Amino acid sequence: xxxxxxxxxxxxxxxxxxxxxxxxxxxxxxxxxxxxxxxxxxxxxxxxxxxxxxxxxxxxxxxxxxxxxxxxxxxxxxxxxxxxxxxxxxxxxxxxxxxxxxxxxxxxxxxxxxxxxxxxxxxxxxxxxxxxxxxxxxxxxxxxxxxxxxxxxxxxxxxxxxxxxxxxxxxxxxxxxxxxxxxxxxxxxxxxxxxxxxxxxxxxxxxxxxxxxxxxxxxxxxxxxxxxxxxxxxxxxxxxxxxxxxxxxxxxxxxxxxxxxxxxxxxxxxxxxxxxxxxxxxxxxxxxxxxxxxxxxxxxxxxxxxxxxxxxxxxxxxxxxxxxxxxxxxxxxxxxxxxxxxxxxxxxxxxxxxxxxxxxxxxxxxxxxxxxxxxxxx
Amino acid sequence: xxxxxxxxxxxxxxxxxxxxxxxxxxxxxxxxxxxxxxxxxxxxxxxxxxxxxxxxxxxxxxxxxxxxxxxxxxxxxxxxxxxxxxxxxxxxxxxxxxxxxxxxxxxxxxxxxxxxxxxxxxxxxxxxxxxxxxxxxxxxxxxxxxxxxxxxxxxxxxxxxxxxxxxxxxxxxxxxxxxxxxxxxxxxxxxxxxxxxxxxxxxxxxxxxxxxxxxxxxxxxxxxxxxxxxxxxxxxxxxxxxxxxxxxxxxxxxxxxxxxxxxxxxxxxxxxxxxxxxxxxxxxxxxxxxx
Lengths: 378, 291
Hints:
- Chain A has helices at residues 52-60, 102-112, 117-130, 146-158, 176-193, 204-210, 228-233, 238-243, 364-377, and strands at 12-23, 26-37, 41-45, 67-72, 75-76, 87-90, 164-168, 196-201, 213-218, 221-226, 248-258, 261-266, 269-274, 285-290, 295-298, 305-317, 320-327, 332-338, 348-353, 358-362.
- Chain A is α+β, with helices and mostly antiparallel strands.
- Chain A folds into two domains: 7-239, P-loop containing nucleotide triphosphate hydrolases (Rossmann fold, 3-Layer(aba) Sandwich); 246-377, CATH 2.40.50.140.
- Chain A is elongated and about 80 Å long.
- In chain B, strands 1-2 form a two-stranded antiparallel ribbon.
- Chain B has a single domain, classed as MetI-like (MetI-like fold).
- In chain B, a hairpin with a 5-residue loop joins strand 1 and strand 2.
- Chain B is globular.
- The longest helix of chain B has 34 residues, at 67-100.
- In chain B, helix 4 (67-100) runs parallel beside helix 8 and helix 4 (67-100) packs across helix 10 (199-228).
- Chain B has 13 helices and two strands, in the order ααββααααααααααα.
- Chain B is mainly α.
- Classes of the chains: A alpha+beta, B mainly alpha.
- The A-B interface holds A 60-62, 81-83, 87-89, 91, 93, 95-99, 108-109, 112-113, 156-157, 160 and B 185, 187-188, 190-198, 201, 205-206, 209-210.
């Protein structure tokens, strides 16, 4: 749900400012600015190679930013070694010490802090109970299942009461069912212990399920930060719109603006949309994103829309009827609606959508980038 | 597991025979039969003209307890022990460096350890003699620099023998160590650091325990041949650090007492087996000995 408190009320715990990471000729993280608030579950989401893991590793201290600063609770941690930082990491491969028992693995961090033996014992037992591994103290990692190893890895990190817990695709190696269960469990743990989580994943569903806020990255560039609701409902870039969930994207330009009404021409037609925030002007390059579940069709022309296509196929998926319509330029439009009237394959339909169901995205940057690229290519 | 392998053996008897047959024959002819022969010989006697007579006696084994021999066993163990320790002390940091370097030519470093072993070790040991002898390069250099007026005798002591042994057996320490360190998961070191361990603690608590198998197999592979490398103590030790290997060699050569040599060999084999057994008991992996 959308958080009620305003940003000013929340305490900043991690502040990433102008961070770049360059390996040789590879610019992995580009001018990243990101603020993480205390107690929140923030997910870095993106496909592999987008820089999310590198970002996490810079916070942990395993990588050094090429430029920029990272602060934890206002303190610059640039020159701190990983063992001096109050953050802990849950590794994708678990990284449990194979020669130590579950107990010794979990106790490792406390032993390093020279905590008294009796206290260590009490905290380890408590932590193992919390991750539902009571009684597994004497086992070795090789005697555990993937899910159990994962719990040990989480317990081993959480027992140190870090200011921030960093999780690098921690559920990546688990099967789907276990993953779903662990997602809920992780969320429960995070709420209970009230520890800030920075969670890296490439699985958008996982991100939507668990996060308070999602930070979407692509090619080293932060695309958008927001609640799952904001990210899904108001994508700010074409990438976000297509990366989160399925969508239909119409790219074109604003040919006429009358009040808040924009008249938009796209390759296979034209239509009018409402620009609630009055962000666009005549001549602007625009992408219009309409989710499959918001897309409508009719067998008669609809006022304000000139998008005509032919039905390619219809498939029942349980309660939903999925339809694919081909536009005159060959683009496929996906439509999902509750099962109802069927359309004949090859039949002509008029596409439209309700007021406010289309999300308007500036594509100037993309066009500009493409223009630059074209010049360079020539 | 056992059931499975028996099953596969049955269903593929012919291919298995083709695979295992030649090896079995090879082992029978070149390992088993000679060993049995040595074993039998160790209970034989010799006549006045040093011919082997097939007459049972245990006297060869009784002679092994001769105090002179006992001293040689002591020297052997001492030299082998020192050699092993030195190989670990030099080999560990060395292997760590080549296994962990980010330099793209790390195979080259590895090759630099191996390449000298393409030359006969006898020749290389003579090389040391040329280098360290009283008329050798090192003394020549020291005298030219006026660091000494008289040439120093570096050779013909236990130290020189240990030096030669370390030189000869170093790769046998590096190979298993390299393998063990190479397969160490980088994430474990990061996890240790992440949990608050400084570098030396990570080494003590994570790196060393997880590479101990390499230290064990390296030690076995250095210690055992060290007992038998008679030419090193011959050439560099000059009779001042005789080892079991020299003793055996002498029985077969100048001493011309093959049955006694055979008895000594059997003892050496037993010591070797004992050490391997200890290694196994300590959790050592037999595969990593098979370099």
